[in-house]
Design a protein that fits this description.
Order of helices and strands: EHEHHEHHEHHEH
Helix content: 55-70%
Radius of gyration: 17 Å
Number of helices: 8
Mean pLDDT: 94
Strand order of the largest sheet: 2-3-1-4-5
Low-confidence stretches: none
Strand content: 5-15%
Shape: globular
Distance between the termini: 9 Å
Structural class: alpha/beta
Largest sheet: 5 strands, parallel
Number of strands: 5
Length: 213
């Protein structure tokens, strides 16, 4: 019997360890013989990856916040309609590095755009599709930004001021508080091994019902 497709998203400020811990989630799913795909936003398809490059590249002309928002949702529409929806319909689980919560956190809380505008675009592009589970790695923005700087050259988004990322973190915290059933918050300030163990235990508890289907 084919498992129901489950949509899992991973969120957090820059430097919170998403990439490292997505591998932990992959390991967790593989051990349980779950068929899944790994993808990311913005991006995930050839066309959406081109939009990602446009979003992250530095430009001589400053990108307007509304332009940024519309590009994010343009990439998301392409991603959803050519990859995510099809995979879920086929019974695959989808593990996605960032999704619409990032838009509320970065363009909403960070840029200060009207949340109602984001909500309208969310309904237009996604209709009723929402993640089943969202893992949010929570970390002090100052620590996260320093970690990001240690990785190398910063892209256009990573180059924002500390205050921007503090607002982004607060945005994620509000989402987690408001949607505590869907969201799993992991303290990313722990050691890498402690985060790994905390994440695996939390996934076991949160996903037991899905894994037993």
């Amino acid at each position: 019997m084919r498992r129901k497709g489950l949509f899992i998203t991973v969120e957090g400020v820059e430097g919170a360890g998403k990439s490292t811990n997505i591998k932990v989630i992959e390991e967790f799913l593989s051990e349980r013989k779950v068929d899944y795909i790994l993808t990311r936003e913005p991006g995930g398809t050839l066309l959406a990856e081109e939009i990602r490059e446009l979003l992250l590249r530095r430009h001589e002309e400053e990108m307007d916040a509304t332009t940024e928002l519309l590009l994010v949702f343009a990439a998301r529409a392409q991603h959803l309609n050519t990859k995510i929806k099809r995979s879920l319909a086929e019974g695959m689980w989808v593990l996605c590095d960032r999704f619409t919560d990032a838009t509320y956190a970065y363009q909403g809380a960070g840029r200060g755009l009207d949340v109602n505008l984001i909500h309208q675009l969310e309904r237009l592009v996604q209709e009723n599709l929402r993640p089943d589970l969202t893992v949010i790695f929570d970390l002090d923005a100052r620590i996260g930004l320093e970690r990001a700087r240690q990785r190398g050259q910063l892209d256009r988004i990573e180059s924002q001021k500390l205050e921007f990322f503090q607002r982004v973190r607060e945005g994620y915290q509000r989402i987690a508080s408001r949607e505590s059933v869907r969201c799993l918050v992991i303290d990313a300030s722990q050691t890498r091994e402690a985060v790994r163990q905390t994440l695996r235990t939390a996934l076991e508890n949160k996903m037991q019902a899905y894994l037993n289907e």
